[in-house]
Amino acid sequence: MPEVQIDQSRCIGCGYCVDFCPVEVFDLVPDDRSAGAKKAQATREEACWACDTCVGQCPTNAIRIVESAEETQSRDRDEPCAPPLPLEEHELYTEWHRVLMDILRLRWNPVAISLIPKGQPLPDVAQPRVKLRHCQALMSARRGKSILMPAQCHACPDGTHILGLTEIPPKLASGEIYLQFKKLATIDAAKQMVAERPRLPNRSIRATLVSPLQEAQRTPDVIAVIAQPEQLMWLCMSSSFYSGKRFNFQVSGYNAQCVETTLIPYTTGKFNISLGCYGCRASSDIGDDLMFMGIPKAQMPELIMGLKQLGKKAIHDSRNKVYLPPNL
Ligand code: SF4
Ligand code: SF4
Q1: Which of 57, 130, 197, 244 could pair covalently with 16 via S-S, beta carbons 3.0-4.6 A apart?
Q2: 255: which DSSP letter?
């Protein structure tokens, strides 16, 4: 069980920890040393799952969450690692990676995302030294890092339960927390937002794994592309090159990387775009000019074939056009 330490000399009794803790660990109690004043107390410490939300919200940096070495251990010492991918599969992902990078002229690596179900072995990939949000791990993977994150490595209460790593905390299930953050107008709007987003069954996923596509250590469920609108436009056209179909995307500005880039492609089998959300834009170095696409692995062969065809002429011609503005 994590230990919730509160430095009482720093606590000013503002109650932010009480409001923002998704599992209601804190209460404000009378301060023995000052009549009428209050201090935070971790009265339900056993409920803490070390999400660090209170640490981020406390204005005086009074809270510290301490986890033991056993709590951060995700694999039995004797548990064998998952075997590496067969060479043929590795070569396929390397080829997809090269085609995406070269034809689209991507600046960032496409990212392989795997949701490793409960009971399956973990690949031999490093876990982060600090807790990360799923969106932060994705942003690191686009720069070349491979990151394995069991539940205890995840920092975001939203993303962690949405991706099936934990239960949904009560204040998230009720929508109450989104009003605390002033992100929605009413509790009904918050409930609607929660009800409309997909989530995987509680604790059905053992860990998330992200890595540059060419370094995937496990068959990816979804491939994420972080790119400019023009580059994602060509990916849409690649996907409809043989069918001419249009797409219905699910975008909201809430839960971009966990829901829109990962879970919607994972659960529907269709690719989706995302404009990012306030969470991932505040918690990472993602540029304001970038957006996201999540592509289920099963859709990649058709998309890559279409992209290769568009890369022969259409993309080159469009990018090299000379625009003459109308003489108004
Ligand atoms: S948020 Fe920090 S300062 Fe405010 S009551 Fe909690 S511990 Fe005290
Ligand atoms: S770490 Fe998360 S669960 Fe634990 S007390 Fe802080 S906000 Fe609550």
Answers
A1: 57
A2: S
* CA–CA gap between residue 308 and residue 103 (Å, rounded): 8
Cα 309 to ligand 1 centroid, rounded to whole Å: 58
Residue ranges of the alpha helices (H) in 118-255?
134-142, 157-162, 170-173, 176-180, 187-196, 229-239
Q: What is the ipTM of this complex?
A: 0.92
Q: What is the mean pLDDT of residues 270-292?
A: 90
For the chain, which residues make up each domain, given as ranges?
3-72, 87-168+198-316
Architecture of the CATH domain 3-72: 2-Layer Sandwich (3.30)
| Beta carbon of 67 within 6 Å of any ligand 2 atom | no
Helix (H, G, I), strand (E, B) or coil at 117: strand
Written as one letter, the residue type at 223 is I
* Both tokens assigned to 52: 């660090």
Q: What is the pLDDT of residue 33?
A: 87
